[in-house]
Amino acid sequence: GQRILKAGHLHFAMLKQRSMADKRTIFLKENVMIFVLSGYKLLHFDRTTVKAEAGSLLLMKRGFYIMSDFVEDGLNFKSLLLYFSDEQMRRFLHKFNFTAPVKTTAGGYLTLPLNPLLEAFREQYISYFTYEPSNLAALLSVKLYEVFLLLLAGSQQQQVLAFMQQVVYAQPQDIAYIVKQHLFQPLTVAELAKLSGRSLASFKRDFQQQYQCAPKRWINEQRLSYAQTLLQTTSKQVAEIAVECGFESSSHFI
Questions:
Q1: Could you read off the pLDDT of 60-89 as tens digits, one per residue?
Q2: DSSP for 168-208?
Q3: What is the pLDDT of residues 160-186, one digit of tens each?
Q4: What per-residue string of b and e applies to 62-100 under the rule 16 or more CB within 10 Å gives b?
Q5: Which of 38, 81, 186, 239 is buried most deeply by CB count within 10 Å?
Q6: Is 47 within 8 Å of 101 (Cβ atoms)?
Q7: Three-state DSSP state, 104
Q8: Rounded to an integer, what distance in angstroms lies between the CA atom of residue 231 and that of residue 141?
Q9: Cβ neighbours of residue 107 closer than 8 Å, sequence gap 6 or more
Q10: What element of type H or E holds 221?
């Protein structure tokens, strides 16, 4: 139920369709813009659940999310996902001089209603999944700037700009918070570094200073310590424990 739009090694977008409800935990390696075409999507957080319905747009910063896709009777859940990196957003803000800080605060996501201009953009973009011109990569890079400008021309300009600036200018997050929040997720050290807003080298250096240990070794020790507790105090199978403790496979865990 997925169609990928890519040029060379670059993934620009995905057109997704599901015929039944689905709930899962996902890790977004890049920021994403989601146009909900039919059905609705839920984002589940500790204290709240956010709903994005057909006719709306959802902006999400890279990271871990628990999401549900819901299907109405007789229909499929459909969505268009556009990916964008921190660097693409940074270049956009500097090119169009949107660097002056705004007072509005922003989180890791933002839901917006569509206006006629955004609806027209969405329909034209979907057509590229059927017809791919020879200069697709250059064209889709320009289309990304187009949708950013359309978002900033809407009624929620300040909220959108705050989200964009938060993506680009957010301070590196506390290493302890990032590691503990994602300790039992099957993430690489490079992915943890990206979540913290650091380069891999900076993450390893800062981690070593804070824990006096290399990150991979420390993380494995914590996972194995938790796994030992589960093995001794529960009746769970080894494969279940491996997954629960963040190992990619039971053979790796063993």
A1: 988 878 788 777 666 678 899 999 998 899
A2: HHPPPPPHHHHHHHTTTS---HHHHHHHHT--HHHHHHHHH
A3: 999 999 888 876 667 887 788 788 888
A4: bbebebbbbbeeeebbbbbbbbbebebbbebbeeeebee
A5: 81
A6: no
A7: coil
A8: 50
A9: 163, 166
A10: helix 215-233
